[in-house]
Write a structure and sequence with these properties.
By secondary structure, this protein is mostly helical. Helices cover 76% and strands 0% of the residues. The chain is elongated, with a radius of gyration of 38 Å.
């Protein structure tokens, strides 16, 4: 017997009929939560308010919504979670000092951001904030780079140049490789040429790399966009100074002083430019003004001491250094200048003592070791200088300053072959070092050792040194004369020797006149030094220095 029942398909239709009220009820409940979330979001002020909005959105999605409303709920949820993470992160990025519990704040913010991105992966701001948080100490660097990369990818598809520029900037600061940093900063500037942050970051990165020529256009653009940007104006003046564009640098230094007439920094900067232009009076005027504004301006005190020393006002110069050392007793720069002033007064014991003090604190400092070696030579201790310079060259055999200094020291103890070897090595590093060219030519022309002298090479080196110094240096003209004399051309020797005497200062004039007399007698000049070593004790610290 056939079982009675509903017609085929009628059961499925009946089940759907029963389900319709259930679905309608669920959608109505979901919509209710979404409406409440929407209303609350409009007035939300606290983190608690935002948390409630997110909870209602999650509940609405779970209970069910129609397709359009579900999409809206996801967008509201994603933006609310981001807003919560952004607001809580202010205690890390905007608060100074940051919230001591910032690692916990970061953890919760990242959790909200992960959910926000899960719901809406196309939110670039969320990816950027993830990158910032992960870039903090003990964050996940790989996740930081992935997040900022995703943000860049999303922003490239949108017409938001400022935001894209900032994304590139964020990635640049996260980079360890300078070339990659520059590449991202280039992209940031290209995306938004008026965004000053990447422009300034690139400029100062180039300054750190001593690439002043490339930094100058960025700094000039910064000053154009932000005329009140004192930092940019000062950096531009510095960069122009470092590229020897002194007149242009002065314009920006003047501007800096005009903008901040009661701040010492502008006067100090302008004074340094005046010093490089050899205008000591103008430099002194600016330094006096800087120190009148700030009597504890150590940088200006030290610079003024050097200007005063250049004007032979040694006691005044020493007073400025002493004042600087009262303010900063252990400042290496001040101790170094004090040693230089002592050396100028031929108080080499004091000068050496100061350098020994500096080297006890910083025993491998090449600048200090070179300076000490020069004091040894000045104090008739060339062999001690040679030993120290040899130690420097053991660490860096291409140190041109050490090679030239050791070559000169070798000359003073009649080791001409050794001196020549050092001069040759120095010229391989810097072929236009006029000091090396001059001394090399001198020993080749004047050595008493027949095997050492080489008239042709001496003349070649001396001519090059004269060309580089525009035939204005009397001691180099004297070398050129000695080279001509060694080659047998006494007419040319007398010509250049006479010129050297005419240009000379009183302290070397007598020596140059003796050389001229020799050439008039058709005799080449011969010179051999063999300084007797000064063996007076220098103190117990000396042995510690020659490492």
């Amino acid at each position: 017997m056939r079982r009675l029942g509903m017609p085929p398909g009628l059961g499925r239709w009946f089940a759907c009929l029963i389900l319709i009220p259930v679905l309608a009820w669920a959608a109505e409940e979901g919509q209710k939560d979404l409406d409440e979330a929407t209303d609350l979001q409009l007035t939300a002020e606290t983190l608690g308010d935002l948390e409630k909005v997110a909870e209602l959105c999650e509940s609405a999605i779970k209970k069910g919504l129609d397709k359009g409303q579900e999409e809206f709920a996801k967008q509201l949820l994603s933006s609310t979670l981001f807003q919560h993470a952004e607001k809580s992160s202010e205690s890390i990025f905007a608060q100074r000092p940051p919230n001591p519990r910032w690692p916990l704040v970061r953890e919760r913010a990242l959790k909200n951001l992960d959910r926000a991105i899960e719901v809406d992966p196309t939110l670039p701001d969320a990816h950027l904030l993830v990158a910032k948080l992960q870039a903090l100490p003990n964050g996940n660097k790989d996740k930081a780079f992935a997040a900022v990369g995703k943000a860049v990818e999303l922003l490239k598809k949108k017409d938001e140049p400022k935001q894209l520029s900032n994304a590139y900037l964020l990635r640049a600061v996260m980079q360890d490789n300078p070339a990659q940093q520059i590449a991202d900063l280039d992209a940031a500037v290209k995306a938004d040429p008026k965004n000053v942050e990447p422009l300034q970051t690139r400029a100062f990165l180039l300054l750190q790399q001593d690439d002043f020529e490339k930094a100058i256009p960025d700094l000039a653009k910064l000053v154009e966009l932000q005329p009140e940007n004192v930092l940019a104006s000062g950096a531009l003046a510095e960069a122009l100074t470092n590229t020897k564009k002194y007149d242009e640098a002065l314009k920006y230094a003047d501007k800096l002083v005009e903008q901040n007439p009661k701040v010492a920094l502008g006067y100090n900067l302008r004074a340094r430019i005046h010093v490089l232009k050899d205008d000591m009076d103008a430099a002194l005027k600016d330094l006096n003004e800087a120190i009148s504004i700030d009597k504890n301006d150590v940088a200006s005190l030290l610079l003024r001491s050097r200007v005063l020393a250049a004007q032979d006002k040694t006691e005044e110069a020493k007073a400025d250094v002493d004042q600087a050392l009262k303010i900063r007793p252990d400042l290496p720069q001040a101790i170094l200048i004090r040693s230089l002033l002592a050396a100028e007064r031929k108080k080499f014991g004091e000068a050496i003592s100061d350098l020994q003090m500096l080297l006890r604190a910083d025993p491998t400092n090449v600048e200090f070791r070179l300076q000490l070696a020069s004091y040894y030579v000045a104090d008739n201790r060339p062999r001690r200088a040679i030993e120290m310079l040899t130690n420097i060259l053991a660490d860096d055999d291409k140190n041109a300053d050490a090679l030239r200094a050791r070559g000169d020291a070798y000359l003073s103890v009649s080791k001409h072959a050794d001196a020549i070897a050092d001069y040759e090595a120095a010229l391989k590093v810097d072929a236009e070092d006029t000091g090396v060219l001059n001394n090399f030519a001198w020993v080749l022309a004047t050595s008493e050792d027949d095997k050492i002298r080489d008239a042709k090479k001496s003349l070649e080196l001396a001519k090059k040194a004269c060309e580089l110094t525009e035939y204005k240096k009397p001691h180099i003209l004297s070398t050129l004369a000695s080279a001509y004399a060694e080659s047998g051309d006494f007419e040319a020797a007398q010509k250049w020797s006479t010129k050297a005497v005419e240009l000379s200062d009183p302290d070397i004039k007598e020596q140059l006149e003796k050389e001229l007399d020799s050439y008039k007698e058709k005799k080449p000049w011969r010179e051999t030094q063999n300084i007797e070593e000064n063996t007076k004790p220098l103190g117990k610290s000396d042995d510690e220095l020659e490492t």
